[in-house]
Design goal:
268 residues; 9 strands; 37% helix
Length: 268
């Protein structure tokens, strides 16, 4: 599925390509996040260029406290959700349990990251035990807690100080899929990369790193459990807004790439 991330996500819902709008619900502060979510819910109109379902998501990032999280959850629970839309919220780790317990169906909860243990040891299979990685949360733990989604490859994780490489993101996606998690994987280009005409080249490299790990290691297929979220990095927090036409141009390129590299079915 395909979605886009302006100040929202311009996601591509993984292998089942759907133009989905992943709205950033939390930016600088939890209070501002609530207002942002309300305004986007009222104003955003999305055209679905694929054949799958819409998905709307909110990445709360490292924002909020228990009181503001409960307030936001109450607002979400009070909303009306049509049948053909999936809704996912990516809560900070400390508030995932609160979100899981109190959010009403069909809203689902996502983690914002997870670790892959065997990244530094190519001889170890992804189905490994958790280990001595202080401060990390593993896909196995999310699986155990029945957290259905995880966001991986976000531009804030690819950039300093984390510097996650395409290879690392690919391994994390494959590991998460192996443990049954649905993945929202972010791809996108910087302003320099866009202005040099390399936007699609950069995104294809990011996608290929994922395809290499899923295919070569014989993990679960892309399927409808991988959402590709197009994230125009140059339009996030800069005051510049990516137009629907710019997002759809990238979506079309990703669909074409999926059709040729993965399958025609997944590109829809």
């Amino acid at each position: 599925k395909l979605i886009s991330y302006h100040r929202h996500f311009s996601p591509v819902m993984s292998a089942t390509f759907v133009a989905k709008s992943f709205t950033h619900v939390a930016q600088q502060h939890a209070a501002r996040a609530n207002a942002h979510a309300r305004s986007n819910a009222r104003a955003r109109t999305i055209a679905n260029a694929g054949t799958g379902r819409f998905i709307v998501g909110g990445n709360w990032k490292c924002n909020g406290n228990l009181a503001s999280v409960r307030s936001l959850i109450a607002e979400l629970n009070a909303g009306d959700i049509v049948d053909n839309v999936d809704v996912v919220v990516a809560a900070p780790f400390l508030y995932i349990d609160e979100a899981k317990r109190t959010l009403k169906a069909p809203i689902e909860v996502s983690a914002q990251n997870c670790w892959v243990e065997d990244f530094f040891d190519a001889t170890r299979h992804y189905d490994s035990q958790t280990g001595a990685f202080t401060g990390e949360v593993s896909a196995e733990m999310l699986e155990d807690m029945k957290v259905p989604w995880v966001v991986l490859g976000h531009s804030e994780r690819r950039a300093p100080p984390f510097n996650e490489s395409n290879e690392f993101v690919g391994k994390k996606v494959a590991h998460a899929r192996f443990h049954g998690l649905s993945v929202i994987v972010c791809v996108g280009e910087t302003l320099e990369q866009r202005e040099s005409g390399r936007a699609l080249e950069v995104i294809f490299e990011q996608l290929q790193a994922i395809a290499d790990e899923i295919d070569d290691r014989e993990h679960s297929s892309w399927g409808s459990q991988v959402v590709i979220a197009y994230e125009p990095i140059w339009a996030i927090g800069t005051g510049v807004v990516a137009t629907p036409e710019q997002a759809q141009e990238i979506h079309a390129g990703i669909r074409q790439w999926l059709s040729g590299k993965v399958s025609g079915e997944n590109s829809q």
